[in-house]
Specification:
single chain; alpha+beta; Endonuclease, Chain A; 4-stranded mixed beta sheet; two-stranded antiparallel sheet; 6 strands; globular
């Protein structure tokens, strides 16, 4: 017998709120993945490479990360929390340091790293998709791009 989940009638504690924050398959990430799929670009989700990128074009060695404005300290949107300010400043600094380490590790393996803020994906999705498409096209050995349109392969150069 499956138990029903009971919804709380009172406000969630900060800990309960933070426990509900998703680490993968976030809204901006899903929007980007759907747009890339519609554009005919095929990718892998969180492949087993350093840093576990949100998505990757393994054959082209391109890793794509969608960084949350809060978690990575976006200069345009990040506002330091009033409570536990030192904890959060250290947390953001650690996240940024980790981002640099992942970029260096992937770079050493010959990968190209593309990072986009969540507000870029939400605000100008077409530009983000075009940049990724251009990076994939540049990385192809023969210079040709293969996209899927209406169920058939189309080759362009």
């Amino acid at each position: 017998m499956q138990r029903k989940k009971i919804r709380k009638l009172y406000p969630l504690t900060k800990s309960e709120q933070m426990a509900r924050v998703r680490g993968a398959d976030t809204g901006p990430e899903m929007v980007l993945r759907r747009a890339l799929w519609r554009a005919g670009l095929r990718y892998r989700v969180r492949p087993s490479v350093p840093g576990r990128p949100d998505l990757a074009f393994v054959g082209c060695k391109i890793a794509v990360f969608v960084d949350g404005c809060l978690w990575h300290g976006c200069q345009d949107h990040y506002k330091p929390p009033v409570t536990k300010a030192s904890f959060w400043s250290e947390k953001i600094a650690r996240n940024r340091q980790h981002d640099r380490e992942v970029e260096n590790a992937l770079g050493a393996l010959g990968w190209t790293v593309l990072r986009y803020w969540e507000h870029e994906v939400e605000g100008d999705l077409a530009t983000v998709v075009d940049r990724i498409r251009a990076a994939v096209a540049r990385s192809r050995a023969d210079g040709a791009r293969i996209f899927r349109e209406a169920g058939r392969k189309v080759r362009s150069s």
